[in-house]
Design goal:
heterodimer; A: alpha/beta; Rossmann fold; 35% helix; globular; B: 344 residues; 5-stranded parallel β-sheet; two-stranded antiparallel sheet; disordered N terminus; binds thiamine diphosphate; binds magnesium ion
């Protein structure tokens, strides 16, 4: 029964062991710490880098071009904004050279709020990431998806960004969603979590987990429903699922879709769901102006207008410079469960 | 105004290269210059939208291209070049017509399928990484390929070039830092071609450091500033520097003083600048003095290559442009072209 951070670690182990990963690197990624969230503990190919995000992405590009298989970590996505130029370069490597080159690298970075991270440990990156052509962008909301999407990222010939919701790092599987082959919680922790104190002699024991590739462009149907669709990802999946549970006794049946692959995204699943319910709410944490959900709304209106029973709606972060530390400030700026419930209820009751 | 050769080590080579090498170098320099002049002409005649290139840097670029350990994969040199480097690719054996194709943005442009400006080659079979317009980003990438060079265990190194003004960008510092991590030094040859300008801004108005190459000293790097106007001298200097990087698997920062003979780009007119040192006639004079080249032969060569390029440009003008739907190809690749295993 792994947490998301353990699932990422197991995926990276499979990456090193069987999928040719050569370098897992970033700030504090190597021993002894193994990453500020411990996502890279106990792995063979980890190394600590200088504190230089542009150098990190540049080096990952160079490694990729030279046939290595790098996974670079940006410690917090809040510090990836100075790399956008280089991210564009990676995304454009194949296209700009007319297919002469490709650039197979993985960037992983923790995103989002929910851990009282204040202004610079709460940013989202999905709006930025999805604006950079040539990148595949994923954001898991379960350990199993984190594992399977990471494996797919590692073998993809294109740059892939794995956005990991910080608030879900320690979250466990729902029953029935384990990674095949993983032992129970306590055993797993003994096997792959570094001991407190001196770790110099510690060697992890990796459970035998399979090549479980979760394909890009396939969303996850979290909960089927009849009356209204909610499309979300990352931390918002839990909030939306909880909202759906709250609304069920009121007779409002909510279909919850975890997009999980933001680009490419599963338009067929969204289309089928919106056709069925005629009502859709998009939810994410990023700031609301030029938000990825706005793109999804635009496409919904363009292609499904006459099948809609209500105007499609977006709940996103407020257009503010950051997320304030005080609880109330965070509540005011990021979608909350109550707000999602209200929005879904209003959509479900909307009379055309 | 400071001249390009002010207060830097003597540019005359004590050692001499064999006659054939010098003549080959001359022929390549002439071809590179005439190619740039043809590209400028094409742009001015409407056969292209923009010109940028390296006339005035041939005495550095040609020996550089000749000394590259050329091939594909980490056992060979990786080249992270900037937009004044056509001559490097030419010296490596690139087809001059391909640069015209890129100027004319034809579908047949092998570097970018009509997508990028002139002077932005990409040649994967020779590890020549796509040249891109943002200044200095290539310096952030070079440590990555150099790690692979080091792993491969051959003599391949990563060579990165850029201008003087661009060294103000963070990636220049990144490259020095990432190439000198204690115990993990990398075979990176950092080159700065110093023409003492960034577009219209004289270097001296923005840079307080005495020499750009001095910055490497803080990282324990070997450094040098050399005159880049005599290809024979450059050849020996570069050979020595490359040998050091190949052998020691450690970085070197080389600053090369060069000229900018047609201004920054077509945006600034791309007209011949009279007051900068021109390496080509100077080299021809040297070859004449040694009795290796007759004036008339040089003139005949010039005429013949000029005609060859004129005709090639005319043919390129007739080549197909990319169709609109071509814009949507190669956003994502299905196969991993860069996958590399020893023995590939
Ligand atoms: C990051 C970035 N900023 C600005 C520009 C616009 N620009 C193109 S060339 C140039 C000057 C570069 O000067 P230098 O590095 O000395 O190279 P040179 O052109 O003189 O060879 C500038 C400012 C750019 N291409 N990239
Ligand atoms: Mg300059």
């Amino acid at each position: 029964m792994s947490t998301m951070v353990q699932a990422v670690r197991m995926a990276l182990h499979v990456g090193e062991d069987r999928l040719g990963v050569t370098d897992i690197f970033g700030e504090d990624v190597g021993a002894p710490l193994g990453g500020v969230f411990t996502a890279t503990q106990g792995l063979k190919t980890t190394w600590n880098s200088p504190l230089d995000e542009r150098g990190l992405i540049g080096t990952a590009i160079g490694l990729a071009l030279a046939g290595q298989t790098p996974v670079a970590e940006i410690q917090f996505c809040d510090y990836a904004f100075n790399t956008i130029d280089l991210l564009k370069l990676a995304g454009g490597m194949a296209w700009s050279s007319g297919g002469d080159w490709n650039c197979p690298l993985v960037v992983m970075t923790p995103v989002g709020s929910g851990i009282h991270g204040s202004i610079y440990h709460s940013h989202s990156f999905d709006a930025q990431a999805t604006r950079i052509p040539g990148w595949k962008v994923v954001m898991p909301s379960t350990p199993r998806d984190a594992y399977g999407l990471m494996l797919s990222a590692i073998v993809d010939p294109n740059p892939v960004m794995v956005l990991i919701p910080k608030a879900l790092m320690r979250v466990k599987h729902a029953a029935g969603e384990e990674i095949p082959g993983e032992p129970d919680e306590r055993t797993l922790s003994k096997m792959i979590d570094a001991p407190i104190g001196d770790r110099s002699q510690w060697v992890p024991q990796w459970p035998a987990t399979p090549d479980l590739f979760i394909p890009f462009g396939k969303a996850r149907m979290v909960r089927e429903g009849e009356h209204v669709t909610v499309v979300c990802y990352g931390r918002m999946v839990r909030e939306c699922t909880a909202a759906a549970e709250i609304l069920a006794p009121e007779g409002i049946s909510v279909e919850v879709i975890d997009l999980r692959s933001l680009h490419p995204y599963d338009w067929p699943m969204l289309t089928a769901s919106i056709r069925k319910t005629g009502r859709v709410l998009y939810v994410n944490e990023d700031t609301e102006i030029t938000n990825f959900g706005e793109h999804l709304i635009r496409r919904t209106v363009d292609e499904l207008f006459y099948e809609l029973q209500a105007p499609p709606k977006l709940l996103a972060g407020a257009h503010l410079p950051g997320i304030g530390l005080a609880d109330n400030l965070e509540k005011a700026s990021v979608p909350q469960r109550d707000g999602i419930v209200d929005a879904l209820r209003a959509l479900a009751r909307h009379e055309p | 105004m400071q001249t390009a050769t002010a207060a830097i080590p003597s540019s005359t080579s004590k050692r001499e290269l064999p006659k054939e090498t010098l003549l080959q170098m001359h022929s390549l320099m002439l071809r590179a210059r005439l190619l740039e002049e043809r590209l400028i002409r094409m742009q001015k005649q409407g056969d292209g939208y923009f010109w940028i290139g390296g006339p005035g840097e041939e005495a550095f670029n040609i020996p550089f291209g000749m000394l590259v350990h050329k091939g594909q994969g980490p056992e060979f040199d990786y080249l992270h070049l900037h937009y004044r480097s056509n001559a490097v690719a030419l010296a490596m054996g690139a087809d001059p017509v391909d640069f015209m194709r890129q100027m004319k943005n034809t579908a047949s442009d092998p570097f970018s399928r009509g997508r990028n400006f002139a002077g932005h080659p990409s040649i994967r079979k020779w590890n020549l990484v796509p040249v891109s317009s943002p200044i200095e980003v290539q310096y952030a990438m070079a440590p990555g390929t150099a790690i692979a060079n080091k792993r491969a265990g051959g003599k391949g190194i990563s060579i990165v070039t850029g201008g003087d003004a661009g060294t103000a960008e963070g990636e220049f510092a990144s490259c020095m830092i990432w190439s000198t991590r204690p115990g993990n030094e990398l075979p990176v040859l950092m080159v700065v071609t110093n023409n003492q300008f960034g577009i219209s801004t004289p270097a001296a108005t923005q840079h307080g450091e005495q020499r750009i190459s001095d910055r490497g000293k803080a990282f324990g790097m070997r450094t040098a500033t050399i005159d880049g106007q005599d290809p024979e001298y450059v050849y020996f200097q570069l050979q020595e520097v490359m040998e050091y990087v190949r052998r020691e698997r450690k970085p070197f920062l080389l600053e090369v003083m060069v000229s900018r003979l047609y201004g920054h780009s077509s945006s600034s007119g791309a007209n011949f600048v009279g007051d900068e040192f021109d390496c080509l006639p100077a080299f021809e004079k040297k070859l004449e003095e040694r009795g290796y080249l007759a004036r008339k032969d040089a003139d005949d060569m010039r005429a013949a290559i000029t005609q060859e390029y004129l005709e090639a440009a005319k043919r390129v003008r007739e080549e197909a442009m990319p169709p609109q739907e071509d814009a949507f190809t190669h956003v994502f690749e299905e196969t991993n072209h860069v996958a590399w295993k020893k023995g590939n």
